[in-house]
Design brief:
With about 375 residues, this protein is α/β, with parallel strands linked by helices. It contains 15 helices and 8 strands. An 8-stranded parallel β-barrel has the order 1-2-3-4-5-6-7-8, surrounded by 5 helices. β3, α3 and β4 form a beta-alpha-beta unit. α1 crosses α2 (about 55-65). The chain is globular.
Length: about 375
């Protein structure tokens, strides 16, 4: 089944969450971003994705895209987030689109999402009247299509699509690692969206970069099948091969990643049966590893009172879990993550409230302390 709202762009979308930074700072490198935007558009890409809560992204989008290209030449997606870490009132939540429009200078958004719905915030979106509000925004011409991004169990997705049948698309976390995962359940969520006739936008196709640099056993399987294809290309092509996927977002951080993605997505070919078997073998090999399933979205970090860089700490921990070199992991932990150490966590819980993966961050940080600090 194939359902589309757009059909004049390649299936790769430019996710603007992990843009390049000026070396030694937290500032987005706008000039580098401009070059990436230019390469993307020249290759036939049109779909860009940002959000109110992506720090600095909307301003960079204005400078690199909206001020440099005719508005009708691209599609821009944005999001309204009513979670506690993003807003403190209904008024603040409903004002996000106006802030986003000012930051981007876009005039309107082609795709607008109720952001990151799960069991913990569903009631708040309803209490604030957000569903009626996005319909109103469409009537006013501030958005063209509205949908939602989702991080929870398939049963809740079924419930949401039944309660809101006029939703036009759904954004789901889909990658070959999570396809049969019992918690994320990518396959089942994809099937539910398709059964409801909703086109799917894919997020996290490389699982926060984990599938771009998988364990060596997985790399060996992929390289043996095609020595010229990067691990990331297998992951993105897996998601893009699903018939009801409208676009696959890739949060590219540098020109090298952009060029790699464009190599195989400019003239995209779906995975054939033999390649699907390679993916299955890679998935089976991944089951041997029990890393922390952090995608590096950084939703947890802005509100941390101790300024703990949680995703970077988890990345070091995952390298240890993957390769077992404790001395190297402790050396990396000593310099790689900036900010406070895991042991400085005050267990306020704001990070767990913000985490779309519902990770037990406090206990995971305690594991880091025991492993890498003691």
């Amino acid at each position: 089944m194939e359902i589309k709202l757009i059909d004049d762009t390649m299936k790769l979308g430019f996710g603007l969450m992990r843009l390049p930074k000026v070396e030694g700072t937290k500032d987005i490198d706008v000039e580098h971003t401009k070059k990436m935007v230019d390469a993307f558009i020249e290759a036939g890409g049109k779909y860009f994705d940002t959000a109110y809560v992506y720090e600095g992204s909307e301003e960079a989008t204005k400078a690199a895209l909206c001020e440099r290209y005719p508005r009708e030449s691209y599609y821009l997606a944005n999001k309204l987030n009513a979670s506690d870490f993003a807003c403190k009132s209904e008024e603040e939540a409903k004002n996000e689109i106006h802030v986003s429009l000012e930051r981007t200078g876009a005039g309107y958004f082609d795709f607008y999402l109720v952001h990151g719905i799960d069991e913990t915030n569903k009631e708040k979106y309803e209490r604030y009247g957000i569903w009626d509000y996005v319909r109103q925004l469409k009537e006013e011409g501030l958005i063209r299509h509205y949908g939602f991004s989702f991080h929870d169990r398939p049963e809740l997705l079924e419930e949401l699509l039944t309660e809101h049948p006029d939703v036009e698309f759904v954004q789901l976390q889909i990658n070959y690692s999570d396809w049969e995962d019992h918690l994320i359940a990518s396959r089942r969520c994809y099937e539910i969206a398709t059964q409801h006739g909703k086109p799917v936008v894919v997020m996290e196709p490389v699982k926060g970069g984990a599938l771009a640099d998988p364990p060596q056993t997985v790399k060996d399987i992929l390289q043996q099948a095609n020595p010229d294809a990067s691990p990331a290309s297998w992951a993105i092509r897996f998601a893009a091969s699903l018939p009801n996927v409208m676009v696959v977002l890739s949060g590219m951080s540098n020109m090298e990643q952009m060029e790699d993605n464009l190599k195989y997505m400019r003239d995209f070919q779906s995975l054939n049966d033999e390649e699907q078997q390679v993916i299955k073998a890679a998935r089976d090999a991944l089951l041997q590893y029990s890393g922390i399933p952090c995608t590096g979205c950084h939703y947890c970090t802005p509100g941390c009172p101790m300024e703990i860089h949680i995703p970077e700490i988890f990345a070091v921990m995952n390298v240890y879990k993957m390769y077992g070199d404790l001395n190297e992991a402790r050396r990396d932990y000593g310099w790689r993550p900036k900010g406070a150490k895991a042991s400085e966590c005050v267990q306020c819980g704001q990070c767990e409230d913000a985490c779309p993966q519902h990770l037990p961050i406090i206990s995971l940080l305690e594991e880091v302390v025991e492993t890498l600090e003691n």
